[in-house]
Design a protein that fits this description.
Radius of gyration: 19 Å
Shape: globular
Helix content: 25-40%
Number of helices: 13
Strand content: 15-25%
CATH topology: TIM Barrel
Order of helices and strands: HHHEEEHEEEHEHEHEHEHEHEHEHH
Number of strands: 13
């Protein structure tokens, strides 16, 4: 199905194609037989796919990364395609429009994207309200949280606290996003002192709840080994559950475009195939240097079953798709899950 739609979608402005896809997904669910055919075509069930991590049961290890379903508009529909978990967001306390358009670009020669969306979302309360009505209670939902653009870093903890409280009842785990390159100064929060303080505050809040929920940290691929060592120390000190490696990169290395073309795309985070190697390196480094001390969710440049297996062999406990899903559709989820079964 996706192979027929893709040429049309790729003929449109990327952001327009995104919104049209969501509209089609919502409407298709009510076409008689669509749900049955979708599940039959893409969902793969097998005992060897199940994973148990940080107290949660995942039906399979392939998830949808944050950034696709920012406002929790289509999590049930993505679950129908066979994802084992869906991460919504990044959400912020207040609704915000994000950065000026155009802000999303396809680099088809490299099966890549550049985005400078800027945490555009309708606000955390809106997402929480929709999540209250999730149809598939077995689908694991993660909540990716961030700060508003106008919130200064010294007050960032307040924004993360608001998002945590609003989403606590409706998500299964949390992801602290301090690694997007598209919110001014956000990545400064990855430094050891402010990040430790932020995570300690959220953990303290977590302990006041009836049941603690897993908190993970999403990191940038552009961190040095010394900074990754700091991340390992921070995870141990704050006792958060794990790390998502990695977010988008500010690097432009390895692109099959001229310098002029790259400058035309402008600032923003690069995702897709050019990130495959680096994200795998970060996963392996974290696992090796920490002596496998905490779970890592691997994301970045997974465009084939081979890419997924490479991430898993590097130490990823779960994986997530974003750009690869845009280029290859739900067939990629099925192919990865089947490959994992065959690897057993």
């Amino acid at each position: 199905m996706y192979s027929l739609l893709k040429p049309f979608l790729f003929s449109l402005n990327p952001e327009k194609a995104h919104h049209l896809t969501f509209s089609l997904l919502k409407k298709a669910r009510y076409i008689p037989g669509f749900l049955f055919l979708s599940k039959k075509a893409y969902k793969v069930g097998h005992p060897s796919l199940k994973r148990k991590l940080f107290g949660l049961e995942f039906s399979n290890p392939v998830g949808l990364a944050a950034g696709m379903d920012k406002d929790a508009l289509a999590f049930d529909e993505f679950g129908d395609f066979g994802f084992g978990f869906v991460e919504i967001g990044t959400v912020t306390p207040k609704a915000q429009p994000g950065n000026d358009k155009p802000r999303l670009f396809r680099l088809t020669k490299n099966e890549a994207l550049i985005n400078r969306m800027g945490f555009n979302n309708h606000g955390v309360k809106s997402a929480a309200q929709r999540l209250k009505h999730r149809k598939d209670k077995t689908l694991i939902i993660g909540g990716n949280i961030g700060k508003n653009k106008l919130t200064p870093n010294e007050n960032a903890v307040d924004d993360y606290t608001i998002c945590f409280n609003e989403l606590y009842e409706v998500v299964d785990y949390f992801v602290v996003n301090v690694s997007s390159p598209n919110t001014p100064n956000l990545r400064d929060l990855q430094e050891k002192e402010p990040l430790t303080a932020l995570l300690n505050t959220l953990q303290a809040l977590n302990k006041t709840k009836p049941k603690t929920k897993p908190i993970l940290l999403k990191i940038a691929p552009d961190l040095t080994n010394s900074q990754l060592d700091d991340i390992i120390d921070i995870v141990k000190q704050t006792k958060i559950e794990g790390v998502i490696a990695t977010n988008t990169t500010i690097s432009r290395e390895g692109l099959d475009y001229s310098k002029t073309e790259i400058e035309t795309f402008g600032m923003g985070g690069l995702s897709g195939k050019p990130l495959t190697k680096r994200s795998t390196e970060v996963i392996k480094y974290l696992k090796d240097k920490s002596n496998n001390a905490f779970p890592v969710i691997g994301v970045g440049g997974i465009h084939s079953a081979d890419d997924a297996i490479e991430k898993i062999k590097a130490g990823a406990d779960l994986i997530q798709l974003y750009t690869g899903f845009i280029y290859h559709g739900p067939k990629l989820i099925r192919d990865i899950n089947k490959r994992i079964i065959n690897e057993k």
